[in-house]
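User: What would this chain look like folded?
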Amino acid sequence: MALQQQQQQQQQQHIKWQQHATKRRRCRQHWIKHLQLLGLAVIILASGPAPGHAQQQKFRTTPHDLQVLEGAEAMMRCEVANVAGAVQWTKDGFALGFSAVIPGYPRYSVLGDRKQGIYNLRISNASINDDADYQCQVGPARLNSAIRANAKLTVISPPASIEIKGYSHNSKVEVRENQDLQLKCIVANAKPAAQIVWYRGNVEYKPEKREDVVEESTAKRFTTTSSLKLKPGPDDDYTEYTCQAKHKALSPDMPMRATVQLSVLYPPGPPYIEGYSPGETLRRGQTVELMCRSRGGNPPAQLIWYKNGSQIRMAYRTAGRLSENIYTFTAEAGDNKARFRCEASNVMSQNPLKAEVELSVLFAPTHVTVMGPTEARVGDIVPLTCTTAPSNPPAEIKWMVGGRQVRNATSKTIVSPEGGWTTTSNITATVEPNKRSLVAICHGLNMQLTENVVSTHTINVLYPPAPPLISGYMEGQIIPAGSVQKLLCVSSGGNPLATLTWYKNDKRINSVIRAADKSVSAEITVLANVSDNQAQYRCEASNSATEIPLFQSTTLSVHFAPETVKIRIEPEELRPGMEAAIICDSSSSNPPAKLSWWKDGIPIEGINNTSKPGLWGGTVSTLEFRVNITQEMNGQVYTCQSANEALQRSVHEAVSLDVLYRPKFVPPPSSTAVGAEGESLQVLLQTRANPTAVVYKWTKDGATIPQDGEHRIFADGGSLNFTRLHRDDAGIYSCSASNSQGKATLNITVLVEYGTTIKSVSENIVVNPGEDAMLSCTVEGKPLTEEHVKWERVGYDMTVKTSTTFANGTSYLHIKNAQREDVGNFRCVADNRVANPTNRDILLIVKFAPEIAKAPTLLRAASGTGERGRLPCRAQGSPKPNFIWRQEKKDLPINRTYKYEVEERKIDSLTYESTLIVDKVAPADYGAYECVARNDLGESIETVRLEITSQPDPPLSLNILNVTHDTVTVAWTPGFDGGLKASYRVRYRMADREQYKYIDGLPNSHKLTIGGLRMNTLYLFSVMSWNELGQSSYLPDLARAETKGLELMPAELTEDSSNTPNLVIIGISLAAFGFLLVNASLVAWFFVHQRRKKVAETTNQPAKTATIEMYAPSSYNDTVTGETLSSVSEKSESYSNEGSSQPEYIDEARKKAASTYLVEGSDMPPPRYQKDGTLPVIYPNNIVNACTLPHPRHNNGSAAIHMTRDDQMLISKGVYIPSPSPAPPPDGSYYNMNSDRYLSYPPMEYPAAMDFTAQPMPLAHLQPIAVTSLATNGGATLIGNGSVAAVAGGSGTLRRGILRGVVGVPQPDVTHHTSGVGGSPLQMLHDLHPVNLSASTLTTSTTLNGSLPTTTATLPRQPHGILKDPNRNKQQQQQQQQIQQQQQLLNASLVGVPVSAGMGSLQILNLPPANGGLGNNLLMTTSGAFDPTAVGMSSFAGGISQAGGIPVAYTDADGHLV
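Assistant: Here's the prediction, encoded as structure tokens.
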């Protein structure tokens, strides 16, 4: 259909195009005719009269009608004789022109020759549009008249398609029988119209009723339709109907056809059966093949076999219109008279068609059955019956009894439901004596089939057996329980042999039967037990001939011990104060058992020992004792023993007393629980009670504490938990414990410690000289005593003129006879060791006359002409001074003219500054000005000069701040900048060279670090300044510094080795390499051995605290070397480990190890104060075991050390106290006190670094250090700083980290406190943690002239088990002795004087003066051969004194390197 629509659209477009072309053609023909007439007239006038002999033009070949196939070539012939005029062709009256090539008609052309008069019109690829009337015209000329000849061109086109509507070619048309069917054949787009011929099969079909229609589908194309109406029958099934188009354009060899095949649905023919004829006889076992066939039918018939109405086969096959179902089977007796039916049907069948047969099968009986008794006595008449299986025809029965045929036996025949007949015969037989059996034989015969079946029946003749006999045991014989006893029973004779059965007290038991020809035996094996005592064993013999069994019996005697002991308590519920009877009942025993009571292995005398008959013929015994019940008897165990002395066997049973009593609290260590605010606290109470199901209830002030963990304060049984303490949580908490027996109550006082806070301080105190001053500082905190508030001032001796008092939380500082030197800030420091210390500064002002600052930069000013000049004048005084500016002894008119203005500002409470502003500076304004500062106590006058802007002055001084192996840090004091911003440039050179190198300073900085220097080289340094107007001169090269080397070797080892042979060097190198390999192997073996040993110890001592390996360096011998010093420089980041492990440093680390650093003095927080080994008196002696987490800021104080209360408790005897902190979880993770959570690895982040922001130290304390055995053989350097230990780099900031070769410092967890001895005590604080003891730390507090602070020495690993050492007391005594020796050693006050200590030496260099303040420094070095054990410093050396010089790094209690 889509193709037809497309063709119609194309045809419609073609028609439109033809209509437009016709209009254009008619217009052209109109003008051409006029032009032809005009041309013809001209030709006639020009030709003149023709000669009389000229011949007239005529057609030699006249065009004739032509028929051509579409797409072929058409040739219209036209030949003119005596042509004179012009020749052209016209199409439907339209002149095509005189040219051989016709414009507008590319397929048209004129072929010929004018000389010969040939004008043939050729049309290529002819189409329907070429179908027209054509005319060959010859125009007039020279008296020749015009001639014309017409011809018609007919273009024919074959049909485009042929189809039977609704069906494809060769498709199958399914139709029911006698159903109307219409076939419609369509032949489309032919010219002229095509004819249609129908065929039925191969024969032309000419029906009476046929409808043909011809329609013009497009211009000059026609479609022919032919409709055929059919009513198919069975004969039309498989018939083909063909529609064929007839057309002139079609080749007869290739007809155009469309064919369909009819599939007519109709019912099948009736079925018929082959393979068996009615009346035919079959034998059982014969193979039968029944074939059911049905012909016809569309679709072919479905054939199904039925047997007696039940479907048996439905598989069939078809061939064309024939269906066949073959059923093959073997004839059986059940097939006799069976009806086999075959049914045929298809979709056209209203009811199935049927055919059936009935079979007749002959068969003999398959067996005969003889029924009757199998046993009989002599003289009995025995009835016998013989029955045959079904048979066709009926079978006959023959009897044979005792070898003789029985005649005249009666029989009867009945129809079998299975087919055929069954025959039955009954006879009787008499049992004769002297025979053991009687045999009867029955025969079944089918006479027609001559088949015979036989069955035999045997009747046994019965005789009784002899009585049984028992052997194997004699009555009265004693059998011990648990032994094995065998009994044998024998019976002889009898037919059949006797059946023997054993019974125990009328209960049948199994036995082993053995039979012989004339006797049978039955044996049993008895494992004697309590039930066998006085048990009767009976053996019975019987067979079919005995009406009552024959038997013999015997009775056993068995000794047995008691099996169980049961204990009864009367009454069942025990409570304190009552009397209870504990009764022991022993189970049956033969002979009677002996009872006894025991407690803790000691016999108890019983009462009321009674006996009575028991089970199995034994005796039951009872023994009891009485006891008065107390609470302490709960859980006590009593044992009752029952013994059978004859068998030497006994049993026992124990009972644990269950005494019910109300709860009773286990006395806690104290009735007070102490915790720190913001931290967690757990108060754990335990009770003893029975029953143990105790209900706890916590209350405070009558309010119940919730039980769920979502609250900040919650109870969990006997545990009271504070997830985050608040100071309002303090108070009395009551815990009640109750069970079914009663209730108990216990009160616990919770004290909440919180850090000190300075609530208020006195305002700046102003006093007159000579008066007493009092400063107050009000502090809040808990605990809070006088010792928790201290006053301090840097560089001020607080012991001379000051005293303190404390009352109601306020500390008062009294200063006697206040003078000018007492002016300054006094710091109130509050620290109760609970939280971070707090401090406030209070300014003491003693009135004094003004003092004008005389710094060079403050007494000069510079300005350009016409600019504003600013002259500063800074003064200190109290009360506030008034400033007066003068020039040439005359007061300046300040603020009265535009010329002079004054700006005043207050710098601090004592310092004021007045700035004179000179507007539009003129040359006359330059010069000296006087600044007068005046108050009630006096005045001060200084001259300030105003100069014209110029180049800057050189810096005032240049100092060396720090020296490493390749860097030097310098600092300078600026000079006058000339009134403009100044920059600075440092030059330096090696001392033995003249060439300088230059480096510019950083903006706004007066310090510079110069890098890239050579090691072991002396450098000279100088500095200059410059501004826009020029530069100053350089300072003299007086500042010098020598960089350090990797190792400092003795002079005898530094000889020139240039003459050493290469072979010697190679040999030494190989030997050293081999030695290193051996050492590495030994170290590895040592680690593996130690680790296995630790694992074994941990396995054998499960109660010890698990350890975690953390912070330790990767090598045992890789301890602190000289890099201890370099680790705190501005390059210390190279040695820190911020959370992850870093590779070992070898060459680079040792290279940096040789550096030595001097440290700036720093304004550090003041030390914390507390008495040795004491707690505030406001607390009881025993602190409840409150589990409070340690605070990260619990640092150790100064010379007088006291540990944090919530970390440890100190006992006067110095023993170890378990940490109240929560133990690490059992998986070995580490509790991070900073983040309040458990980590699966040791934390690598530390508290924030301490900043050192004070001014640089005076040059007097920055002298170079003399060369000592600083790095030789791993020597150590110790650095102290004033009263607060600190080490800093150039930036003045110390970062805490894990240094290569420095053992890490863990958090405090277990503390060992040892009291100092002597006037200058040295306290040793082991700041330990349960770690894998590859490294430990030892905290040491030392006092040197009252200024050496607490330090922590990081040591190599201590022996395993330092946390729980059974020899701890002995070690403490040794440490007491060591402390005395250390005190003597460290109290040395000489600079650079070695202290004799056996082998090696310890030198104290640059010892600060007694009142040096924080700006002083202490440097201690040890020689390579120094033996700490020889001078009592084994606590520093640990277990590796043989390693030579001991590297030591000091830390505070938080682990910060100082």
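The chain has a mean pLDDT of 76. If you want, I can go into more detail on any region.
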